[in-house]
């Protein structure tokens, strides 16, 4: 990662109540609603939130058109689950503006015109996957702990374990790394942690700090807690006005939070609001799956994997593997093996990871990667069931 012996690296996360994440969750709830009706549904749903308003736009194609009232109910349900009952952003009172329209025939043609077996990609683009041995989830440690801090606070807030905190929050974790002989950073400790959390008017900064400190201590490995002077809670002193009352939100604005926290490249495409025919989403999932399985197999300690697609073309234009000097096999051989083991066409990806299911709202807060795969199909791209096959093939 760095030529110096030691260095610092920082990643951030945002909570489910952050305005952009409110939008991501509504967008993905709309995707799930359509896939629940029609597993072949096409959805591209964008959301914007402002005080008192939720604006929904985009395109859909489904065997049943969802009524405006149904879309409104989906949006209100998401906002209620997050916990917004503010004067100017209340799940029951907020104005819902629905501008969803049918999918463009020209876009549909790019995916549908090829023979069913060779279904083309829904768009051009490049997608990256990444995995490393920094954490048990094979995720970079700064983003892993940033997500976990906010997830644990949210759980405590919703269970009533802690009181007086609102839904909007951010975290940021800076780690001190020391390079090993191969130049790969090994995390030593958290040199600083920042948590900014919305709160009730009656709470002061010191009280919020005492609520949050035990959660941060629980999340970080033993001995990793930063010095007290480097533990920042609501550094501006006050965070009462939050969520869409304080800042507008848009779908797809937190793509680095959604992926690897800056530890790996990003192709540029957002995930939320898109059905799995969009390779922005499905190919980013398969590249994470492959990178994670390469690392889990023991073939490498770190792996970056890129694929590229063209609209209407089923095969990837390129597959790139980089093991950052940690590989036990040639990168060209690893790329050849994964091409043999996994069909990287858009249809092949969806079938391999079983993506045509309503599994996306859960991805829209606290990261798409490094999550526990579930029996109902959620986070299938974080399974390591291919690791043994990769090991044997190499």
Gist of the model:
The protein is of the alpha+beta class.
Describe this structure in words.
The protein has 10 helices and 13 strands. The chain has 394 residues and is an alpha+beta fold. The strands form 4 sheets. A 4-stranded mixed sheet has the order 1-8-9-10. It has a 4-stranded mixed sheet with strand order 6-3-2-11, covered by helices on one side. Strands 7-12-13 form a 3-stranded antiparallel sheet. Helix 5 (205-219) links the parallel strand 9 and strand 10. Helix 1 (19-37) packs across helix 2, helix 4 (141-159) packs across helix 5 (205-219) and helix 7 crosses helix 10 (387-393).
Based on CA atoms alone, the radius of gyration comes out at 21 Å
Q: Biggest β-sheet, characterized? A: 4 strands, mixed
Low-confidence stretches: none
**DSSP strand count:** 13
């Amino acid at each position: 990662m760095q030529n110096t012996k030691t260095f610092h690296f920082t990643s951030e996360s945002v909570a489910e109540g952050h305005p952009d994440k409110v939008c991501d969750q509504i967008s993905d709830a709309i995707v799930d609603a359509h896939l629940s009706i029609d597993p072949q549904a096409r959805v591209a749903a964008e959301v914007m939130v402002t005080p008192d308003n939720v604006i929904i736009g985009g395109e859909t194609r489904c065997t049943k058109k969802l009524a405006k009232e149904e879309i409104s109910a989906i949006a209100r349900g998401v906002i209620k689950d997050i916990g917004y009952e503010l004067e100017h952003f209340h799940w029951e009172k907020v104005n819902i503006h629905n501008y969803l329209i049918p999918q463009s025939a020209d876009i549909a043609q790019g995916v549908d015109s090829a023979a069913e077996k060779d279904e083309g990609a829904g768009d051009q683009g490049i997608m990256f996957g990444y995995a490393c041995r920094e954490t048990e989830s094979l995720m970079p440690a700064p983003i892993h702990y940033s997500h976990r801090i906010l997830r644990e606070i949210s759980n405590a807030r919703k269970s009533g374990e802690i009181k007086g905190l609102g839904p909007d929050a951010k975290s940021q974790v800076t780690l001190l790394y020391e390079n090993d002989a191969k130049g790969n950073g090994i995390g030593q400790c958290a040199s600083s942690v920042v948590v900014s959390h919305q709160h009730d008017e009656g709470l002061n900064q010191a009280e919020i700090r005492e609520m949050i400190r035990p959660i941060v201590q629980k999340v970080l490995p033993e001995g990793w807690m930063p010095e007290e002077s480097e533990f920042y809670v609501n550094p501006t002193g006050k965070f009462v006005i939050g969520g869409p009352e304080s800042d507008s939100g848009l779908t797809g604005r937190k793509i680095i939070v959604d992926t690897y926290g800056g530890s790996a490249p990003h192709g540029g495409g957002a995930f939320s609001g898109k059905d799995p025919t969009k390779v922005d989403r499905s190919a980013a999932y398969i590249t994470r799956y492959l990178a994670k399985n390469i690392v889990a197999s023991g073939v490498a300690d770190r792996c970056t994997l890129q694929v590229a697609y063209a609209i209407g073309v089923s095969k990837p234009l390129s597959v790139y593997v980089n093991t950052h000097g940690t590989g036990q096999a040639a990168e060209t051989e690893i790329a050849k093996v994964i091409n043999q083991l996994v069909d990287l066409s858009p249809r092949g990806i969806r079938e391999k990871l079983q993506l045509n299911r309503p599994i996306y709202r859960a991805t829209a807060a606290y990261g798409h990667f490094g999550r526990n795969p579930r029996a109902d199909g959620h986070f299938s791209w974080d399974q390591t069931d291919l690791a043994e096959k990769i090991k044997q093939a190499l």
